């Protein structure tokens, strides 16, 4: 009996010891998490303290999208920087590992040029001995000015840093993609079929529109690789895809090269085990090594990096290990870590101007791939067209001669066709005229007018969609609403007699639409884009009449919505006033309100109503104002003005622009 009591006592002591050990372990884990968080904060704070107050403030403002640290470029600055870039390349030893891929590219180019010269000598007689003609090889992609300017813009025209990034880029591209990276820029066709299966899952995507500062947004929806050997293809595909998308984000846009891009890593797909993403939260050290090389080589300036983590102990540890031990301190200056639920992190990202509604992640945790598949198909087609163009240039321009002096000529062949730069440099060089310029090219969706992602001030038109996701359309609509609100703010004393409204009204509308076009193209340096079904993307509109027509239709639709909302508010106000005065003791200004739904202005409705059925259906900006639609007839003019005015303001019908009074 005593022995049983002793055993029970020993068991109780053991249980108490286990509970104590568990509590101690839990406290130790909490202490470890706090220590790791403190270590991360100390690392970032120590790096920030090395900067001046102005530098710290500038970085934070750029992260929030209210400032851009890009250098103001001039022709002289670019020429001097490119000369310094070439000189800096000569300072790097040829036997250096940093210059390995660079030397291989030059060697291949020289061999190809020698074969071309030998072939020409067999087909043509040699030149006279007294001639000073010299044949030079054409430039390869890495020698073009556009390609090198990308690295200069990424490093804010720090020539030495740009040169190192340039050489690192060539080495890493050769390491990931092989010998094809020595001949041209890499593309989606350089992925294997097995790798493309992983690519199509959409773990790494570019959003279809920019943020509020005009920066491309690169989203990584989890996608960590497992540590077992069976997932080796996932590791390689992820490394190659991250390199490619980060490179393609700014490849064809000078604006994106200058203002940079934003990276969002959303780990919410891992919450609850991560089985829906077919991934594991454990990452391969080799992946981080390649990621570091990609950050140090690809010429895309990431101005802000947002890491969104679930608020769990595992990710608190992962947060510190990833940010502190795997990345440089200068990289941490741009990092914003957000820990919380999915909705909390969305609100935090929204405060930085990131379009969270475009993030390709559903509420259930599935990754949306529609936009990504469209973008992928577009890139494949653009790269094929570019390769054909490069092949044509190389076959027709194999040599260059100079018979006047015995020096080599550097033939400036832009292999890397820069679509958006070409458009921005040439789209406003003509004399601005609102009349038709005979540009019959809107139906010809040539590659030179293809736009992969609309710029910040671009206005897009697509049938059946309001394009509310594009920042340029938001500004465009705000100006329309401001025009309508300005009109409604006019007192009745400033309105002209009804007989003088008719010609001036249509003229004022056309003037406003013309001003709206000029403000977009000349003042804000934007473009008008429309959706192209053959290209499955946006193309720049060139025909002036088509632009004016699209703007007129957009203004008409905006008027409809504005009138509907205003009449709804007027009706509610009238009902409230009638209820308040049921005793009939007083009279209010809302007593005679009548919402007129039968009258319609031709510009808004398309040209026909019971009161204006004799007028043709044409939108605004379509012709002279002498026969402008929507002029009210005798039936309209006979309406009592006392039934149409409220405190000196003419309430409009659901779509009757003429009921707004004189402009």
Automatic annotation (TrEMBL):
Residues 18-28, 109-123 have a biased composition (Low complexity). It comes from the Eukaryota. Residues 622-641, 650-663 have a biased composition (Polar residues). InterPro entries: CRAL-TRIO_dom_sf. Residues 1-38, 109-137, 424-449, 611-663 are annotated as: Disordered. Residues 1-17 have a biased composition (Acidic residues). This is CRAL-TRIO domain-containing protein. It comes from Pseudo-nitzschia australis.
